[in-house]
Design goal:
Two copies of one chain form a homodimer. The first copy, chain A, has 383 residues and is an alpha+beta fold. Chain A contains ten helices and 15 strands. Chain A has two domains: 249 residues, L-amino peptidase D-ALA esterase/amidase (4-Layer Sandwich), CATH 3.60.70.12; 115 residues, Ubiquitin-like (UB roll), CATH 3.10.20.340. Chains A, B: One of its GO terms (molecular function) is L-glutamate N-acetyltransferase activity.
């Protein structure tokens, strides 16, 4: 159930002293081939961390042979020194593997504006390389944890091939920017172009729709590497379906581990004029602190849902909106319908359904509630 | 220091039993002329409350002779019955004053989806009318309070004329949607067209730049009425300046009264290519839960500031941004500069300055911090 489940990969994770906790903080995942096709998506934030600036160059040619990751420092806004540290780490990995640094993706997570100890990182790379093994995925997954309460991994089996992955990120409710790092491995034979198409399709409906607090990381990186070691070439639809299933599994693991959250909220917008409208509406609700506070207070406050819908440019009639919470239609035709008292928000899972009655498209966006005292101010009033 | 400070206005506030607390909940402000020019701005939310739908028709001709307001229920998403309640209230006021209901603005605040007791409202209107007096501004101001800890009023004196105002709203951190209601009175002679121009200019740089949690109300209404009782016609620039001063004073009162807040944060963006860019950057930072959480934790986390700037479309070079907190330039050229330890966030007032180095425009956006446990998750990490 790790990045080393697919054939053709080795990994390891070690403690290099970057984390004050003394826990594992450097991970290395190596693709032993025979193919080295890859695809990567990065954060859309215009303020990007040094590892992202470096890795954007690495992935340009569709070839990635290794990914080295560290927790204990995001190496973001650390200036030229910071970029040189990222470069040095890639060179160190390349030297050990006898490859070019330009084929080594680097990922970092932790505080912004904090320079990593270059020598400690390089020593960590040495140790991680020595320990590389075909069953080292678990150690690697543990080494990229920051505020994560559990390592996050997933595997999807194809016919004769598989996809494995590890992820870090405690939802966007996590301290700092909840840098989300994901390394995906597969032993299927998939070209870089097909990997790119599949990865963008998969992330568009999974990670891209996880929006715990609207804050966008400077370090987010999702890299997939194909070793081709199974010798099997799945159809692109089959591979895309498997990859989407894997990314959704990981996204739900991130959602469930979101710090300080009491509820996981799935917001589904129905009958939208376009999928974009459905996502805009869902994201607007997901970013309403007042709505999220109400959920924490177990208050089925559909008024806050409609108020969020009203801030969007989506097509709908403000006088004819329906809203359900946990399946109870508390609002129909923009007027009170079922008794909100019928909505039980005591469980962790919450669903919100908005019917725009403007088309046939739909989309689901996931978020968490806002918990504790700030929320108290917003949740105590109407309860 | 009230809406009855300017000549030509009477007001009163009474308890009509709409508030469970038994406090005052119905307010009436009447313009006795000789002029009845007015201007109003409403919430931009597409999901508007019944009083807003009604009042949009009332203000269309630039004439308003009275404003009746109630707390204890927003009368939003209450269907045709709710609209009929708003209409009945306007008719009741009109009947007492011998005017047309179409000259009566109605404002409501409280829970969305909650129908107001029509008879209680009408009885409240009767009592408020009986008590109307030229020094009833204070009672009116108290009757529109919801979670406000203090009534909010302001007066600006011109030469021979004055502007008075009352406002309710406990910042957008308040329960529900912190409906912001403002009634402004002046005895200056100002045409409806000039009032509209002055009001839009004043609110654009005051209320419109107060963004405590990004949630937009369904009921926000700001109405200005000119009685012309002073017989003096100020220049439009003079009147606009005074009105802007008044609205900014009220906006700061709302900011300071924001529920659950420990800090008032003024975010100033310098050297932007356009004022719109400056506002977009300020608003993005103001809406970052992580940044606001850090301020609560007294953590001068400029990384979260840059991460928010990076999510905007404003013109800037991500590699050359400067950030100061409370006057300390903690980041220059997008790299660490002064020791963040020099930033003292123990006081309530916090300033954040971002230099985009892209032009000559500037703007300030005001917000509050995110407090307590949710924030704890975000503020404890780097401290």
């Amino acid at each position: 159930m790790t990045v080393t489940t697919p054939q053709g990969f080795r990994a390891h994770g070690v403690a290099a002293g970057l984390k004050s906790s003394g826990g594992k903080d450097v991970a290395l995942v190596v693709n032993d081939g025979p193919t080295y096709d890859s695809a990567t998506v990065f954060t859309a934030n215009r303020c990007k961390a040094n590892p992202v600036l470096w890795s954007q160059q690495v992935v340009a040619d569709g070839t990635v042979r290794a990914v080295v990751l560290n927790s204990g420092g995001a190496n973001c806004y650390t200036g030229p020194e910071g970029f040189q540290t990222t470069h040095a780490v890639a060179e160190q990995v390349a030297g050990h593997l006898g490859i070019g640094a330009i084929d080594v993706v680097v990922c970092s997570t932790g505080l912004i504006g904090l320079a990593n100890d270059r020598q400690a990182l390089l020593d960590g790379v040495d140790a991680a390389h020595v320990g590389l093994s075909a069953d080292g995925g678990q150690q690697a997954a543990e080494a990229i944890m920051t505020t994560d309460s559990v390592p996050k991994q997933a595997v999807v089996e194809g016919s004769g091939w598989s996809i494995g992955a590890m992820a870090k990120g405690a939802g966007m409710l996590a301290p700092q920017l909840a840098t989300m790092l994901v390394v995906i491995t597969t032993d299927a034979v998939v070209s870089a172009a097909d990997l790119d198409q599949a990865l963008r399709a998969a992330t568009r409906v999974s990670f891209d729709r996880l929006d715990s607090d609207g804050c966008m990381s400077t370090n987010d990186t999702v890299t997939v590497m194909a070793s081709g070691a199974s010798g099997i070439t799945p159809s692109l639809p089959d591979f895309t379906d498997a990859l989407t299933q894997l990314c959704t599994d990981l996204a739900m693991q991130l959602l469930r581990d979101a710090e300080g959250s009491d509820h996981d909220i799935a917001i589904t917008t129905l009958n939208a004029a376009s999928e974009e409208d459905a996502v805009e509406v869902g994201r607007s609700i997901a970013r309403s602190n007042l709505f999220k506070a109400a959920v924490f207070g177990k208050d089925p406050n559909w008024g806050r849902v409609l108020a969020s819908v009203g801030t969007t440019q989506a097509a709908f009639d403000p006088a004819d909106l329906d809203v359900a919470m946990n399946g109870v239609w508390v609002c129909k035709g923009s007027t009170p319908h079922a008794d909100p008292g019928e909505v039980d928000l005591s469980g962790r899972e919450v669903t919100v359904t908005v019917d725009l009655k403007a088309g046939t498209e739909r989309a689901t966006v996931w978020t968490n509630d806002l918990t504790h005292a700030y929320v108290h101010e917003n949740s105590a009033y109407s309860s």
